[in-house]
């Protein structure tokens, strides 16, 4: 018998007894009078905090293990896609997998280290739908801070009850099913904690998790440490021959091309945003974000076509 076990036995009953929560909610005005007098936080036991988080997370893992749509990457395109899907179909289960701790990808600044975000028309329609204010400069509009765009979009996406963001989680592989013609259809994703994904070379036995879904939408950005993940995997599994490779910067050509080419690249896998530039050899656009928003709108439409069929 360990030294701890004796007191623990009696204690255990007390610790597991349900803690009755008193409704201690106050208005901020009532709080203002209390700082010097009776101010105190409502009581809590440490285990309640752990359980409040882990119970929900594991419930979400269970719920979203079978999803309707998985979005890979929560940058400007992935979040725009999620917003459109969440609005259109509250009945679908949508999981977003984001490798970084912080969702938003490259859309926290407008480009370089500057704050303002430029969107060419007609992408102002997306801002209007979100209720984000902007300066109208004729052919383009300017949001005063890219973070205003990203935080507004993110807050709306996170409020949809049928969307779950799993951040700090990387897509490590794709689930496939054979097709009669010898190719494959994408049928979900293989995931792992990003910190685990980063340590496969020096730790063993860190097998991944999975999410089954009939539609995966990949918006992992152009090639980089994490970018273009799904399309690079399509090449290594011989589902597309090679990548076109993102071309140099040409704002006019790039934005039109990304929106027009947003599509199901192989059965079950829709690609949007800058990941597409790697598939098709499209130009980059630099710091203009209209194509990311409208590629997201189009990716959502492509996905919904499958469910509406
Ligand atoms: O962390 C990545 C980022 O948040 C995430 N991601 C990448 N690989 C992943 C993986 N699993 C999970 N294997 C992954 N998440 O995907 C997100 C991509 O966001 P982004 O902002 O890089 O891409 P985007 O296509 O939404 O927006 C591109 C914005 C650009 S790049 C550009 C240029 O270079 O010219 N111009 C614009 C407007």
UniProtKB/TrEMBL annotation:
One of its GO terms (molecular function) is kinase activity. It is found in: Cytoplasm; Nucleus. It is an enzyme of class 2 (transferase). Homooctamer. NCBIfam families: sulfide-dependent adenosine diphosphate thiazole synthase. Involved in biosynthesis of the thiamine precursor thiazole. Catalyzes the conversion of NAD and glycine to adenosine diphosphate 5-(2-hydroxyethyl)-4-methylthiazole-2-carboxylic acid (ADT), an adenylated thiazole intermediate. The reaction includes an iron-dependent sulfide transfer from a conserved cysteine residue of the protein to a thiazole intermediate. The enzyme can only undergo a single turnover, which suggests it is a suicide enzyme. May have additional roles in adaptation to various stress conditions and in DNA damage tolerance. This is Thiamine thiazole synthase. It comes from Coleophoma cylindrospora.
């Amino acid at each position: 018998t360990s030294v701890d076990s004796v007191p623990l036995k009696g204690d255990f009953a007390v610790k597991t007894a349900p803690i009755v929560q008193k409704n201690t909610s106050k208005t901020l005005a009532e709080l203002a009078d209390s700082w010097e007098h009776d101010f105190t936080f409502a009581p809590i036991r440490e285990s309640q905090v752990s359980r409040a988080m882990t119970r929900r997370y594991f419930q979400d893992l269970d719920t979203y293990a079978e999803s309707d749509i998985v979005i890979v990457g929560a940058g400007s395109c992935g979040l725009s896609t999620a917003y459109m899907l969440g609005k259109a179909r509250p009945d679908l289960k949508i999981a977003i997998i984001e490798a970084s701790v912080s969702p938003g990808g490259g859309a926290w600044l407008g480009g370089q280290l500057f704050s303002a975000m430029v969107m060419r028309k007609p992408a102002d329609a997306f801002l209007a739908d979100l209720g984000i204010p902007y300066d109208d400069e004729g052919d383009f509009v300017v949001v005063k801070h890219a973070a205003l765009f990203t935080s507004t979009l993110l807050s709306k996406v996170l409020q949809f009850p049928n969307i779950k963001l799993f951040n700090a989680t990387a897509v490590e592989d794709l689930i496939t099913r054979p097709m009669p013609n010898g190719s494959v259809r994408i049928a979900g994703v293989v995931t792992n904690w990003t910190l685990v994904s980063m340590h496969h070379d020096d730790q063993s036995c860190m097998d991944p998790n999975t999410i089954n879904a009939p539609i995966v939408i990949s918006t992992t950005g152009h090639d980089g440490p994490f970018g273009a993940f799904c399309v690079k995997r399509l090449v290594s599994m011989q589902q597309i021959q090679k990548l076109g490779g993102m071309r140099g910067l040409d704002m006019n050509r790039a934005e039109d091309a990304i929106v027009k080419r947003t599509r199901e690249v192989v059965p079950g896998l829709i690609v949007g945003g800058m990941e597409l530039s790697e598939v098709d050899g499209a130009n980059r656009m630099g710091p203009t974000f209209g194509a990311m928003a409208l590629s997201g709108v189009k990716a959502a439409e492509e996905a919904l076509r499958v469910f509406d069929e």
